[in-house]
């Protein structure tokens, strides 16, 4: 069972246990011990409160930071990165396309056969490969050679239905979910490794060039057509299924958002305007920070002791990686100050990240996520009634949203409250699984070198 699977399997147990504790504290608890517990719970509830008025202020602050990030690099905590994706899938795409999804200790290779409007996705196949730990800390050539070799073996299993026409080069969408400074649709400089990787010689290099050289060493005739991250892949996959998709959000172990912006509304864009007039923006919204965010001493302690203090504050309030850790810190204080679990503090409460999710903390995160989405809609002018009414679809991916119903229901209900019933009826959140895989292949198709015109 994978790490995330174990986390989600524990959610129901943890929530049930915490719910019982809350009932005991609020309904039956008596005496000095329970008075202390009640005081801590009351304090947490108060500090985590997210009334609608405050959420609207958070949304306004998000929209302001979006404008600032689009105006200049470094002008905002939101990076508002240009993705150079100016053509999203339309459904007309035809042919065979590959995807490589590298975002952690495993990577996936995928191929998809597209048949245009009528055929859509005719067939798709994929394979998942584990990266040996020593390659995560070794040399750049060794890592990319391993990836290219796996890709080459996968290509060799093509059935007759996947054969490409004579003289055409295979095309690949490369999902690379690490910090990158994008230079074009098919090139980007690695800023730093995360998620346990540490290969210094790759930092500052074009990751597409590194992969291309490795594919050449394998004798694999394949071209990277699009370099994207998982959020943009989710947006592409969502757009392929629904032409009204305008925004993509990831709510899982981490969090991010991307959306379609008008190119003429990006002051820092100095190139020729794309034919479509659009540009997909990777917000990197996990780094959003504002005095309006309801931070507690538990959040501040978590941030101080994290590997990136002062960064990713929004993410630390609402992503699956951190929600349980906040709960652990609250329960640890209860155990220390009120002997909630007896005279001896349970050893497991001393271990960082041992627990999963509690309603108070999860609902705060969900409501802040909804405020962020509302801020994007405000920036795009989709928070008001238009004539005729515009339908806006948000492609959503991530295990936190998909598997934790209290969280997803809270996101949906809060967004509806912020928008109001009339506008809320035009905004739809759609679950978009596997966006980082199929979406990358679709972006390879929509940016194919063989497109006419």
Automatic annotation (TrEMBL):
Enzymatic class: transferase
Metabolic or biological pathway: Carbohydrate metabolism; hexose metabolism; Carbohydrate degradation; glycolysis; D-glyceraldehyde 3-phosphate and glycerone phosphate from D-glucose: step 1/4
Sequence intervals crossing the membrane: 6-25
Pfam family, one: Hexokinase_1
Gene Ontology molecular function, alphabetical: ATP binding; D-glucose binding; fructokinase activity; glucokinase activity
Family statement: Belongs to the hexokinase family.
Heme is among the record's keywords: no
Keywords: ATP-binding, Glycolysis, Kinase, Membrane, Nucleotide-binding, Transferase, Transmembrane, Transmembrane helix
EC number: 2.7.1.-
Domain Hexokinase N-terminal stretches: 42-240
GO cellular component: cytosol; mitochondrion
PROSITE patterns, per the entry: HEXOKINASE_2
Protein name: Phosphotransferase
Any one of the GO BP annotations: intracellular glucose homeostasis
Domain Hexokinase C-terminal, chain residue ranges per copy: 247-355
Reactions accelerated catalytically: D-fructose + ATP = D-fructose 6-phosphate + ADP + H(+); a D-hexose + ATP = a D-hexose 6-phosphate + ADP + H(+); D-glucose + ATP = D-glucose 6-phosphate + ADP + H(+)
Organism: Carex littledalei
Keyword Metal-binding: no
């Amino acid at each position: 069972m994978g790490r995330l699977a174990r986390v989600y399997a524990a959610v129901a147990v943890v929530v049930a246990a915490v719910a019982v504790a809350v009932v005991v504290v609020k309904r039956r608890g008596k005496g000095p011990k329970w008075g202390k517990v009640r005081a801590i719970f009351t304090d947490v509830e108060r500090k985590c409160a997210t009334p609608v008025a405050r959420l609207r202020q958070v949304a306004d602050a998000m929209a302001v930071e979006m404008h600032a990030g689009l105006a200049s690099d470094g002008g905002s905590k939101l990076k508002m990165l240009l993705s150079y994706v100016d053509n999203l899938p339309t459904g007309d795409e035809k042919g065979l396309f590959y995807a490589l999804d590298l975002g952690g200790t495993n990577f996936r290779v995928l191929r998809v056969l597209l048949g245009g409007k009528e055929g859509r996705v005719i067939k798709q196949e994929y394979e998942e490969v584990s990266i040996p730990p020593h390659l995560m800390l070794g040399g750049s050539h060794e890592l990319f050679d391993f990836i290219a070799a796996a890709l080459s073996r996968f290509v060799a299993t093509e059935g007759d239905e996947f054969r490409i026409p004579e003289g055409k080069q295979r095309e690949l969408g490369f999902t690379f979910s690490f910090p990158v400074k994008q230079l074009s649709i098919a090139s980007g400089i690695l800023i730093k490794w995360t998620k346990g990787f540490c290969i210094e010689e790759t930092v500052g290099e074009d990751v597409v060039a590194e992969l291309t050289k490795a594919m050449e060493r394998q004798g694999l005739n394949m071209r990277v057509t699009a370099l994207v991250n998982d959020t943009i892949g989710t947006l592409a996959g969502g757009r392929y299924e629904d032409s009204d998709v305008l925004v993509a959000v990831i709510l899982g172990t981490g969090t991010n958002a991307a959306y379609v912006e008008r190119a003429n509304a990006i002051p820092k864009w100095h190139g020729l305007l794309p034919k479509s007039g659009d540009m997909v923006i990777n917000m990197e919204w996990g780094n959003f920070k504002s005095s309006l965010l309801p931070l507690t001493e538990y959040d501040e302690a978590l941030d101080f002791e994290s590997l990136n203090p002062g960064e990713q504050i929004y993410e630390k309030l609402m992503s699956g990686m951190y929600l349980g850790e906040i709960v652990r810190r609250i329960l640890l204080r209860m155990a220390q100050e009120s002997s909630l679990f007896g005279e001896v503090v349970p050893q497991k409460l001393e271990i960082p990240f041992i627990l999963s999710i509690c309603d108070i903390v999860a609902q705060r995160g969900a409501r802040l996520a909804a405020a962020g989405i509302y801020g994007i809609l405000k920036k795009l002018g989709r928070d008001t009634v238009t004539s005729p009414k515009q339908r806006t679809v948000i492609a959503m991916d991530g295990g936190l949203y998909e598997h934790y119903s209290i969280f997803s229901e809270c996101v949906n209900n809060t967004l509806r409250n912020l928008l109001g019933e009339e506008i809320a009826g035009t905004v739809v959140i759609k679950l978009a699984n596997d966006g980082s895989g199929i979406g990358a292949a679709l972006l390879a198709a929509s940016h194919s070198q063989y497109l006419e015109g």
